Amino acid sequence: YSKKAEGLTVTNTYVIPKTEVTGTKVWVNGENNRPESIQLQLHRDGEKYLDPVKVDGTEDTPWNHTWSNLDKTDINGNEYIYTVDEVDEPENYSKKAEGLTVTNTYVIPKVAVTGTKIWEGGSQDRPAIQLQLYRDGEAYDDPITLKNGEDSYTWIDLDGTDINGTEYTYTVDEIGVP
User: Fold this and answer.
1) Where does residue 85 fall: left (phi above 0), alpha (psi -120 to 50 degrees), or beta otherwise?
2) What's the CA gap between 168 and 135, in Å, rounded?
3) DSSP characters over 147-161
4) Are 130 and 177 a contacting pair, CB within 8 Å?
5) pLDDT, averaged across the chain
6) Which pLDDT tens digit goes with each residue over 68-105?
7) Which end of the chain has fewer surrounding CB within 10 Å, N or C?
8) Per-residue pLDDT for 178 more than 70?
């Protein structure tokens, strides 16, 4: 409070205290070549407050921003609650904003891979064959069987990368050429 005395009247006026808050961005897994910057939006009592700010960081330096000289309370002394959110979440990451921390967790993208058998010449009556899927040169899952008249198979819902964002290479090969 501030005090002002005039004659026989003393007036105490509430002075809003100041505070500072630090918003932090946390990365969980994913690629090391993350964006150079992100934008954090400050919220006060659930409403956007001030303009978004650009936040830079690296693997070795924190991704955070401190807002200073913020009103801690309203004119009636009710304390404000400050939170942060990220303006745009990066591709292949899920976002969780909680209090003054935004956490982006890497979500492995899913891909589909189609293996195709091509026959050149010979009888139109084709024997059943087996195709084996390989991921980075290692056999992946069980072989599938293509029967007469089938010339391709699509594996769906495969991980496109590892947990660190390194892309997998998928190939197929025939087991036991007829």
Assistant:
1) beta
2) 6
3) -TT--EEEEEEEESB
4) no
5) 93
6) 999 999 999 999 999 999 999 888 999 999 999 999 99
7) N
8) no
Largest CA distance in the chain: 115
C-alpha dist (Å) from residue 161 to 92, 94, 111, 158? 11, 16, 9, 9
Backbone angles phi, psi at 145, to 5 degrees: -110, 130
Tokens of residue 176, six digits: 């036991």
CA 80 – CA 45 distance, rounded (Å): 6
- Tokens standing for residue 9: 């009247």
The predicted-structure confidence for 35-61, as pLDDT tens digits, reads as follows 889 999 999 999 999 999 999 988 788
What is the rounded CA–CA span in Å between residue 25 and residue 84? 9
CA-nearest of 55, 58, 59 to 22 is 55
- Paired tokens of 10: 């003393």
